[in-house]
Design brief:
Layout (H helix, E strand, L loop, with lengths): L9 H32 L3 H14 L2 E5 L11 H8 L1 E2 L2 H4 L13 H9 L16 E5 L20 E5 L7 E5 L11 E3 L4 H12 L12 H9 L22 E5 L3 E2 L4 E6 L7 H13 L3 E3 L4 E3 L6 E2 L2 E2 L1 H8 L3 E3 H13 L10 H18 L4 H4 L2
Parallel strand pairs: 9-10
Antiparallel strand pairs: 1-3, 1-4, 2-8, 3-7, 4-9, 5-6, 5-7, 11-14, 12-13
Helix pairs in contact: 1-6, 2-7, 3-8, 9-10, 10-11
Length: 377
């Protein structure tokens, strides 16, 4: 049998093979779990098989990023993409929209050692070859328009990767930081461990993927139909709001804007800004279509006092006064932490302030409304 990961560098190949081996061992129990969910829902196994086949056929990964944020190299993420033609991992950029622990001995370093069997910890394996993180597109683009992406909690903009990139990716329902991540991780050919986790979540009756009303039946029917005809219950939703529930994707190997990307979707808050101009230049240079999702906007007065253990109302007022909070305003304020750290005295440590910015972005994802509601377009 041909090696499905042929052409990948040795460390990346070893990581993919390790995950495949582990997923193969768990496939039987994952399928039994899926079958139990289907029986409880009164659904036929053939519906799951049809959904799985279509998902594999059209599987695309979204890689989210905040385009205006400054890397350790002193340039924005968007400027780095334009200059390098490559999406770089957190070990290279020094920034993260999730856990800022991408360094030797950090939490992310430990997760990767466990999830990939130590493949990236072998002698000679440079941090630059570590995976790039995104999420699997599982729900359709609603009403024919691009949504806010598969995991907007990690960035206001995202790259849509070509389907073939999914063949060298691994997938985890929930995220690689969770203690049971390995049990919910597979590959495109062995996706059942990840899907079992998703269907179990849906079976609780509280939705998933940022859609509270989503059911097992609705998801599988959409996928089986190709994912392009939204179910009636989802037509109302212009923003997905997948804050906690998604299938994380770990892309092994480089992500080239020339070869691996088929789309760029951005928050309209950057239209007419310097960052927006860089995004437009990136689109032209690499011949990648640029689209705009509905955007997230929230009046500061509607920001809660606290969110998941952190005070965010005061930060929202500093960012946008008594006006409207959006991705561009939030990013501009976040960059001042690096450009003028003295201006943040009294706000806590750098890590605490960065965490508050992340929590405020999560508030914007969870409660924000489409930009057109405020600007009439």
């Amino acid at each position: 049998m041909d090696n499905p990961f042929a052409g990948q560098r040795v460390y990346e190949c070893q990581a993919l093979e390790y995950v495949s081996e582990q997923a193969r061992l768990r496939r039987g129990s994952a399928r039994a779990c899926i079958a139990a969910v289907l029986r409880a829902q009164g659904l036929d196994w053939s519906l799951f098989e049809a959904a799985l086949d279509r998902l594999r056929t059209r599987a695309r990964i979204d890689i989210h990023f905040h385009p205006e944020r400054l890397s350790v190299h002193g340039r924005t993420v968007a400027e780095g993409l334009l200059a390098d033609g490559e999406f770089r991992n957190q070990y290279e950029t020094g920034i993260s929209s999730g856990s800022p622990t991408a360094f030797q001995g950090g939490a992310r370093d430990s997760w990767e050692a466990q999830l990939f069997g130590g493949a990236y910890h072998a002698p000679g394996a440079a941090p630059a070859i570590r995976p790039k993180y995104g999420a699997l597109e599982t729900l359709p683009h609603l009403d024919g328009h691009h949504s806010d992406g598969a995991s907007p909690r990690f960035g206001s903009c995202y790259l849509v990767l070509k389907p073939q990139v999914s063949e060298r990716a691994t997938f985890t329902f929930g995220g690689s930081q969770e203690e049971d991540a390995a049990e919910k991780t597979g590959t495109l050919a062995l996706l059942e461990p990840a899907l079992a986790g998703l269907l179990l979540e849906l079976a609780k009756g509280q939705g998933a993927l940022g859609v509270p009303e989503l059911t097992v039946c609705a998801l599988l029917e959409q996928l089986a139909q190709g994912g392009f005809a939204p179910a009636q219950e989802l037509r109302r939703r212009a923003l997905g709001r997948a804050l906690d529930s998604f299938i994380e994707a770990q892309v092994h190997g480089r992500v080239s804007l020339w070869e691996d990307v088929e789309g760029l979707v951005a928050d309209p808050a950057f239209r007419g800004t310097a960052t927006g101009a860089v995004l437009e230049a990136l689109s032209r240079k690499f011949a990648i279509p640029l689209d705009w999702h509905p955007g997230f906007v929230l009046p500061v007065a509607e920001v809660p006092q606290r969110f998941r253990g952190y005070e965010v109302q005061a930060l929202a007022q500093r960012v946008a006064g008594e006006g409207l909070l959006d991705a561009a305003a939030l990013g501009e304020a976040a960059n001042t932490l690096a450009l003028d750290p003295n201006s943040w005295r009294g706000w806590g440590t750098e890590d605490e302030i960065l965490t508050r910015f992340r929590r405020l972005w999560h508030v914007l994802v969870l409660y924000g409304r489409p930009r057109g509601e405020f600007l009439g377009r």
